[in-house]
Amino acid sequence: MNAIFAAVFLAAAVIFLLDDPAGFLPAMLAGGERAAALTLTLLASYCVWLGFFEVLQKSGAADALSRRLSPLSGAVFRSGDGAALSLAAQNLAANMLGLPGAPTPLGVAATKKFLAAKNRYAADMLFVLNATSLQLLPTTVIALRAAAGAQNAADILLPTLLSTLFTTALGAGLVFLTRKRCDT
Amino acid sequence: MRYIALLLPALFAALFVYALCKKVRLYDCFTEGVKGALPLAMSLFPYLAAVLILSELFEQSGLSDALTSLISPALSLVGVPPELARLILIKPFSGSGATAVLSDLLAVYGADSYVGRCACVAFGSSETVFYISAVYFAGSRRIRARPVVIALAANFAGVVLGCFLCRFL
């Protein structure tokens, strides 16, 4: 990330310097503004979901759910840490249901626990599963297609589902195959 | 689509009824959970700011346009319409940026055109990789390249497959 940040930042700065020096600061400020606005949006969804997850936890529903999933999630993440596995399983469930804003707090908490236990494999696996789109129903796309006057807004469901299953399988497979190189 | 909307109220109602049966004090419990919202948002904020400033510089400097014309011929080689180059470049950085590009593409080419359908599949089967890596690995000292490269490669392979499937599905 440090290399990408430096490379893109410098390249952009040089282009601005040669092309449009006055546009540099407004462009960065626009980014900052989006970060501020996005943080507020995320904060709003955390208010809802962190409350929900606490009830899920305290009522024992989360434990019941994760106990049922633990043989599977333990194998996927190669971890025996019940609390972290429970968070990771809830993160994957929230991803598949496409609950907006819900997966992030769970994923961040699970990653923290995995990394604290020096289980980089699990952290990488969770990240790749999240970063290859598990969402079963692409609601944003369907809404945009409907707005653009598509004959049948949902007709991209099948190809989308197939390719997202493929990306997730490929990503998980690559993490598994390169597991010996977890440190790089 | 109407049934999807039922999911959320049903999910909350079911959990709250279950929690009441388990004698959970709902108000105390809910507020206890929300306590973590501000610290979480604050801990993610610096990483969001860096990624979004970077994505804005990437777009507005014209770097994105330059790369777009650079990768377009390579995309045609693997069977991806070159019109998708901008979408493929912006998606790893920013979901809202990609949404804007997708609705432009749908407006220009039409939602039912081959390009429009490919764009939808490409959008739906990929994720905001840099954004997620910044957030998920926010606590760790440095973000390692391996998982990010794997995620980017898998997402791109999904775009190629999706465009292929769009020819006959």
Describe it for me?
The complex is a heterodimer of chains A (184) and B (169). By secondary structure, chain A is an all-alpha fold. Chain A has helices at 2-19, 24-58, 61-77, 82-97, 103-116, 120-130, 139-147, 157-177. In chain A, helix 6 (120-130) runs antiparallel to helix 8 (157-177). The radius of gyration of chain A is 20 Å and the shape is globular. The model of chain A has no long low-confidence stretch (mean pLDDT 88). Chain B has helices spanning 2-21, 26-34, 37-60, 63-77, 85-90, 95-109, 114-124, 129-136, 145-165. The chains are: A mainly alpha (184), B mainly alpha (169). Chains A and B meet through helix 1, helix 2, helix 5, helix 6 and helix 7 of A and helix 1, helix 2, helix 3, helix 6 and helix 7 of B.
How does the major sheet of chain B shape up? none
Beta-strand share of residues of chain A:
under 5%
Could you list the spans of chain A in which at least 5 consecutive residues all have pLDDT below 50? none
Tell me the count of domains of chain A. 2
Count every beta strand of chain B, where a strand is a DSSP E run of 2 or more residues.
Answer: 0
Mean pLDDT of chain A: 88
Q: Tell me, briefly, the overall form of chain B.
A: globular
Biggest beta-sheet profile of chain A: none
CA radius of gyration of chain A: 20 Å
Count of DSSP helices of chain B?
9
Report the count of strand segments of chain A: 0
Order of helices and strands of chain A: HHHHHHHH
| Secondary-structure-derived class of chain A | mainly alpha
Indicate the percent of residues in helices of chain A: over 70%
SS-based class of chain B: mainly alpha
Distance between the termini of chain A: 13 Å
Low-confidence stretches of chain B: none
